[in-house]
Write a structure and sequence with these properties.
The protein is an all-alpha fold. Helices cover 48% and strands 3% of the residues. The longest helix has 16 residues, at 122-137.
């Protein structure tokens, strides 16, 4: 998939770019939306400790995503990265993963910017794309032209 920005040449839409789109969609929402997001993260049900339990080994399908609200999808997306020890600048998300028995924080606290995408396997990269594409279809993210 190619991303077209005004006045800029096309560039490949990588998992890192997708994560940046998601990060900025959260970062630049209204403060009420962000507060609501942070509050909802702390209230997610503890279903076996994972939103998408096998997203590291099994490709997600639309049926796996349907019925989940925006905040659950966001956390499910972050979960793919958290499996690799990524840190999060959003305190609510970081606290959510810190409470998971399987999560081990690696590196510095600047994970939103300095995470090495190469640790993701092919299935995880595909699942990141699936989740982000689904969020776009549902209108949760602005579509890139």
């Amino acid at each position: 998939m190619k991303l077209r920005q005004e006045g800029r040449p096309r560039r490949e839409l990588t998992p890192r770019t997708l994560l940046q789109i998601l990060y900025f969609s959260v970062r630049y929402t209204s403060s009420n939306d962000l507060f609501s997001y942070a509050a909802s993260v702390t209230q997610l049900p503890n279903r076996g400790d994972y939103i998408f339990e096998n997203s590291d080994t099994v490709l997600l399908e639309e049926g796996d995503l349907s019925g989940k609200d925006l905040n659950t999808l966001r956390v499910g997306l972050h979960e793919i990265y958290a499996r690799h020890g990524r840190t999060f600048t959003n305190g609510a998300i970081q606290a959510y993963f810190d409470a998971k028995s399987w999560y081990t924080r690696l590196g510095s606290d600047s994970g939103d910017i300095h995470f090495d995408e190469s640790v993701l396997n092919e299935t995880e990269r595909a699942n990141v794309k699936t989740i982000v594409d689904y969020m776009k279809v549902k209108g949760y993210l602005k579509r890139a032209n």
